[in-house]
UniProtKB/TrEMBL annotation:
PROSITE patterns: RWD
Organism: Rhinopithecus bieti
Protein name per UniProt: RWD domain containing 4
Top-level division of the source organism's lineage: Eukaryota
Segments forming domain RWD: 9-111
InterPro entries: RWD_dom (IPR006575), RWDD4 (IPR042770), UBQ-conjugating_enzyme/RWD (IPR016135)
Gene: RWDD4
Region (Disordered): 131-167
One matching Pfam family: RWD
CDD domains to which the protein is assigned, alphabetical: RWD-RWDD4
Segments of skewed composition (Basic and acidic residues): 155-166
């Protein structure tokens, strides 16, 4: 099989395996992200795998540069990527995206054993003497957003265009109606 046929088969398999999994995101047909760990877990991290044109005969591009990983030190990121690279070399020539995501899930604790969260808000929280409330509201907001019913999602999608933006003028005042009410003062 050619590289493109292998990629198409793997893409179809990934879509069926991770259907409904909130941790998995398909950025493009050749680029994927997976969150290892639960939302709000300080040891959670995000792996991005991008396929090259000749993948799986050549290694995919592994990245941990997502904003989600900004609290992880670069040394821990490099350590995780090095361990994943070893798994890539062991699986070269075969479909490995699922294998790499599962390998990371199975070894999360080992990968993150040296992790001490780098929090840019710690200096601010120490001044105000509030430590954990900074993370709690953001997770609550995410929970609310994820709990939309199908009907609510459909209604939201109907209001927006294909880019998810509201149409131009969605909140404009009915100009004619407004002018007809205020225009009567000029007639006097």
């Amino acid at each position: 099989m050619s590289a493109n046929e292998d990629q198409e088969m793997e893409l179809e398999a990934l879509r069926s395996i991770y259907e409904g999994d909130e941790s998995f995101r398909e950025l493009s047909p050749v680029s994927f992200q997976y969150r290892i760990g639960e939302n709000g877990d300080p040891k959670a991290f995000l792996i991005e795998i991008s396929w090259t044109e000749t993948y799986p005969q050549t290694p995919p591009i592994l990245s941990m540069n997502a904003f989600f990983n900004n609290t992880i030190s670069s040394a821990v990121k490099q350590s995780i990527l090095a361990k994943l690279q070893e798994a890539v070399e062991a699986n070269l020539g075969t479909a490995m995206t699922y294998t790499l995501f599962e390998y990371a899930k199975d070894n999360k604790e080992q990968f993150m054993e040296d992790h001490n969260p780098i929090n840019s808000a710690t200096s601010i929280s120490n001044i105000i003497s509030i430590e954990t409330p900074n993370t709690a509201p953001s997770s609550k907001k995410k929970d609310k957003k994820e709990q939309l019913s199908k009907a609510q999602k459909r209604k939201l999608a109907d209001k927006t265009d294909h880019k998810g933006e509201l149409p131009r003028g969605w909140n404009w005042v009915d100009v004619v109606k407004h002018l007809s009410k205020t225009g009567s003062k000029d007639d006097e």
